[in-house]
Amino acid sequence: MNRTEARKKAQALVSQMTLEEVVSQLSYQAPAIERLGVPAYNWWNEALHGVARAGMATMYPQAIGMAAMFDPELVQALGDISATEGRAKYNAASAHGDRDIYKGLTFWSPNINIFRDPRWGRGQETYGEDPYLTAENGKAYVRGLQGDGNTMKAAACAKHFAVHSGPEDLRHSFDAIASEKDMAETYLPAFEALVKEAGVEAVMGAYNRTNGEPCCANADLMRRLRAEWGFEGHFVSDCWAIRDFYEGHHVTDNAVDSAAMALNAGCDLNCGCTYQHALAAVLAGKVSEEKVRESAVRLMTARYMLGILGEGSEYDRIPYTAVECPEHLAKAEQAAREACVLLKNDGLLPLDENKLTTLGVIGPNADSIASLIGNYHGTSSRYITIQAGLQDALEGKARVLCSQGSHLYRDRVDSLSDEADDRLAEALTVAENSDAVVLVVGLDETLEGEQGDTGNPFGSADKLDLLLPASQRRLLDKVLEVGKPTIICLTTGSAIDLGEGGEKANAILQCWYPGARGGKAVADLLLGHASPSGKLPVTFYHNEQLQEMPDFTDYSMRGRTYRYIGTEPLYPFGYGLTYGDVAVTEAKAERRDDFLVLTAKLTNTGKCDTDDVLQVYCQNEGSADAPDHPRLCAFKRVQVPAGQTVSVSLPVDERGFLVVNERGERVQEGKVVLYAGVGQPDARTEALTGHASVRIDLE
Question: How far apart are CA 166 and CA 553, in angstroms?
Answer without folding.
Answer: 7
